[in-house]
């Protein structure tokens, strides 16, 4: 798995007419490894919903910054949140309602590593992975209803159903929390699956070749020491 | 786990005199969550060595791009690789030997998610995590010896010891592969561990609170179907 190039200037790509796909654009059609790219909405949603952190990139004083952060998805919109004092959230400035506000140019990337790919040749070593890259402009969410929806989505992204089983944010917490939204429009998924792809002339070499799958799971839950008596582990956790 | 702010303008931070720490800089001292930041070299190395992918951010046409990619570490230097035709690698331009070459400004971030943090309040939901953020300038590696060392490190990052048990890159493969180096200088780690931190007045609320640990492991290896006869699974894989 190597540094890929995303932005081939692409003239021959047809815009997807299937409503379940994102339209490929200059930003999302790779110059290389094009057979690994996908614009399928269902695949994109599945990759986004399975991960816990995204890597949010933006430009500060001309230099790139990449920060890991939790996110939530509501339909075709992603949300991230932070303190109202945090720099990227202040940089995002105004709202969609203020047309003069440019928002914050971001690139939001989510990646799963699914396996180690061991080829006979060093050159063909790789990782099996699934990733989504979203380019766009993030805007502050100021509508109180959308902000609540976004914060619920962030909590439900940690554990589905959890927002209904916790104390909702109060006015002070809402005021201290900034939320950014990013539309799923300029989006692509990329993945590698399966066996190593060795060159034909290397197949007889005396090196083991294959895939080591990476597996993820949940450990036994650790209740807080100060949990009020009589509170059992909720079903939505047992179901994980 | 929310969008943090990294670049507080910081006047009161003492430069670390311990040789096993990175010196905090304006770029690596957060304005918020400062108690979660660390400059410890051993911690940084451990976080880097345990992950498989980094998220590499750079600026293209004024906009941020964040791509997942494999990496390798040799001492205080990280390496990423890609096709010589890939855009970011071409953007990195010349070499350290060419003083006039500016290289490519990057931010390279590595994150582990260790647990889901379920507080009584929606507001205090979070993730337990460990991350490293590196700011710097990436340069193309042109010295043939360093390039070979870097490619070995990339393969050994997939599985320690693997580079010695695979066919080394040949001249054609070396020529097709570009390698970027990034020094570990402007570096910080950040982590959250332990129980949820609910407000005192919420402790009696009837909501479960605690941590769900995330665990990672390896599945049974999948040998390539065309493996030459008599090749056993190597010990370095059984040891994973």
Describe it for me?
The structure is a homodimer of 240-residue chains. Chain A is an alpha+beta fold. The first copy, chain A, has a single domain (34-238), classed as Electron Transport, Fmn-binding Protein, Chain A (Pnp Oxidase, Chain A, Roll), CATH 2.30.110.10. Chain A is 17% helix and 35% strand. Chain A has 5 helices and 11 strands; from the N terminus they run E-H-E-E-E-E-H-E-E-H-H-E-E-E-E-H. Chain A has helices spanning 41-50, 87-91, 144-158, 171-176, 235-238; strands spanning 37-38, 53-60, 63-70, 72-74, 77-83, 104-118, 126-140, 177-183, 186-192, 210-218, 222-223. The radius of gyration of chain A is 21 Å and the shape is globular. Chains A and B meet through strand 2, strand 3, strand 5, helix 2 and strand 6 of A and strand 2, strand 3, strand 5, helix 2 and strand 6 of B.
